[in-house]
Amino acid sequence: MRPLALLPLLLAACAADAPVDDDAAPPVRPAAVENPAVAVPDEFGDYWYQGEAELTSYRLEQARYGEVHPGEAVLIFVTEPFSRSRQVKLDRAGAAGDDEATVLKLNATRAFLTGVYPYTMMTSVFTPIGAEPTPLKVTTSSQEWCGHTYTQLNRTAEGWRARLFSYFESEGDQDRTLPAVMPEDGLWTLLRLDPERLPTGDVRLLPSGIYQRLSHRPLEPYSATATLSAPDDDGVRVYTLTYPDLGRTLRIVFQADFPHLIQGWEEERASGFGAGAERLTTRAVFKERLMLDYWTRNKRGDEVFRTELGLGG
């Protein structure tokens, strides 16, 4: 399928270094998918339980400080065993009983320069495969030469436990409870599992962790309008979120057919601070895609896979 131009221009289990013999073992395939509507079980399993991650690289144009900066983005999707109670990856699949959930994990990374100093950002999402559309956990980290920040959302019976650690005095360290609304970051994994379950109409969402970090908006729910287009002649759909109070619009472009590959996205909002901030567009355009057990590719010479993905050093 040809790479997609987004709107007119736009239109994976990481093993810890632990003393565990099966660190590099492929994800365990569950006996059955809880919700058959997610996908045809054999088709779903053959794609997501083959012991490899889906790595997709994008050419990034990141709006920041009133300008658009070039960079790279990578989406890494992979299934792995996860503890519902501790909300961490299990070292040994199959040993936790009912506490174990198989999740679709997304690691979404961005890297770009603003003048002399770089930004490196990453969001991780852990969504159970089956009947639950909401992630168990979402984290976002941001590093640049001024300092670094870290945000973690853990799903609880009361909603979300939200913790924010920042080097800014005005944000400080926060630990509080937020309502049980869908995090925007969780929509990316839900889209891959079953786009028909994406919320549409008037919704309340927690905006993405990367947006919250770059905008310094309060960590809280906001109203949005969500739409999902029908497939076009090329079998492509667009999921659009519009936040009136934030002056922000996000569009995710993806393939209608399973496995619902994401071809790119764009986000339009004010870049900079104050009433005179210019509206700019962040854009990510598809470059390359690989299925790879990347956690075993950590030797000299394995850089060839970065070359295949069109990524820098």
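The record above closes out task 2.4. Task 2.5 opens with a second protein, given below.
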Amino acid sequence: MPHFFASGRSGDRVEILGVDARHLAGPLRGRVGERVAVIDPAGFLLTVELVSVSARAVTGRVVESRPHQPEPRVRVTMAIAMLPATSLDHVLSRCTELGACAFALVRAERSVARGEKPERWATICREAAMLAGRLTVPPVRGPVGLDELLSGEGVIILDGQAERSLSEVGRMDEVTLAIGPEGGWSPAERGLAASRLARLGPRVLRADTAAVAALALTLGLNGEFES
């Protein structure tokens, strides 16, 4: 069962509202007396015994509380060129689980043309955050142009033709990793981002694979997987 987000807490009483309450009361068939894991955004993981269950509101009693700080110290925004729906959904879900702090969708020259689905993207990130027990749900913005993305600080454009590798970039506090479309960045886009290019490795990866690998490598280089 996933973790749920506490909508409010007073002493040993917790309230779960909105979509989490509907999900818990409906498909998951939560019952009075059952115990569930609840995230307190103040930084605690709670074991909560359900006291009342309805689609409007679920209330419970805290039976255990322990400090919970799953968020990475390094803030990594994943900038993803617009991909086919299945691939984009995969990136949003898996990178949320790993610890991406935010997403920016990019209109690249070779991107797949498709409609915007902000509600779906937000739902995917929320469900992945619940599964991973995160304190926050990463926001999704865009689509934005590459020029707009490059106007920010700490942007690294992943490209197989780059001279330096991502592992050479070193430790950082905040970074944006940009992953191109399946056809790769165009020559014009490479020229625009020339000073910010970095390669991920010697093999050609699908865009969704590259996104997960780049995030995992960056978190690892910054000590996020150390016990």
